[in-house]
Each structure stands twice: as C-alpha cells, then as structure tokens.
Amino acid sequence: MNCLVMPAAAQAPPARVALKFADLDLSRARDVRRLDLRIARAAADVCRPESTLDLTGTIAGARCRRDTVSATKVQRDRAVAKFAKQPEISSR
What is the pTM of this model? Predict the structure, then answer.
C-alpha cells in the first residue's frame, strides 16, 4: 500500500514521495502512530526551506509541512478505516 505525499505549497519542481505502509497493521494504534510519523518525516523531506537562516524561510517550511500533512489526511484516514473494517480471523 502506498500514500502519496507532496508539498501543499508550490515548489519547482514539485517533490513527491510514495510512502509505503504495507508492513504496518493499521488496526493497531501503535502502527497508526508509525504511519503518522512516516507522513511527518516525508513532509519534512519535501518541504525543506530554501534557507533556514531567515525567519521567512523557517515559517514557510513549517507551513508547508503542516499543509502537506493536512493534504494527506484523506488518504491516511481511508487506509486506517480500511484496516479497521477488516474482520479478525478467529483461530477456532
């Protein structure tokens, strides 16, 4: 399974990250937190400010990360909901 992470703010060229999470069991809260951490890290990677020496660049980078994480929310929520709806397999 993949989730596409792209910066919400315009950049040239636009960066994209395909985030894999097939190794996670999204029916477990711990793995959902791991997915959220992966999304945050991917957003940080695609939203690197041109300069961290000025406040404007720092603020723009933080805003881009926040908006990028927010833009992935629908995909993330769908993936978590899909796992939550899967029936558990009984070993009886």
Answer: 0.73
